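Onboarding guide, step 5: your first structure request.
Type a short instruction followed by the sequence, for example:

Predict the 3D structure of this protein.
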Amino acid sequence: MLSPVGNSHYDSMQARLRRRMSAGMSLEMAYTWSKSIADSGTDNSDGTPSITIPQYYALNRSVSSFDRTHNVQITYIAELPFGKGKPLLNQRGILAAILGGWQLNGYLSFYSGLPFSVTASGTSLNAPYNTQRADQVKPSVAILGGVGPGQPYFDPLAFAPVNDVRFGTAGFRSLRGPGVRDWDGGVFRNFMLKEKVRLQCRFEALNVTNTPQFANPAANVSNLQLNPDGSVKNLNGFDVITSASGERMLRIGLRMSF
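The system replies with structure tokens like these:
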């Protein structure tokens, strides 16, 4: 029995820029540059590591699966320039009554992709309950950015299966998947029905631009088939992104406060 089984470590630089309401605009931006490392092979050092053989335990050290190097979050609230006290349509009228008093709000997110491991079949390793790592055969791995069937995300020839009784040379979670860009936005207006009764109308869109958030590619190099000359014959799912999330959602709401 090995106890404790490992630890995790997190470091970050955090910055925030805030501009309160000025000329009808409020803006806040937060940026985090961080790195989380665990040598247990699991995020919270509370599970079974990828490699359980004591003399090879150090090979588990890698960034955590939730690690995102860069994380930028931007929020804003902006009053539309229509209606009483505004530059446009500031006189009484139907358009002033309809367009006046509305505000825009939004939330923009930009962050790095999640890390993933390139693995291989563990047949030659002959060590049940251990994860075999692929061999990295090129000094650097080119990110091609392909998405969908037959489109490799990274250079598939940068890795090779392991056919000896040893662990591969590619570190755990050595590559990162696609980053994420997301914009949630809305428009709202408050109506005073009585002195202490307020009605708020909201129109919101989650993922305004309908930008997909792609998952990491499948990464077992033993599925790759090569031609005799060393070129790719069939990816067989290796190095291919096949799923995504983050479809656009629209919401309309009313809220009464009293």
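Each response can be followed by summary notes, for example: The helical segments are 94-99.
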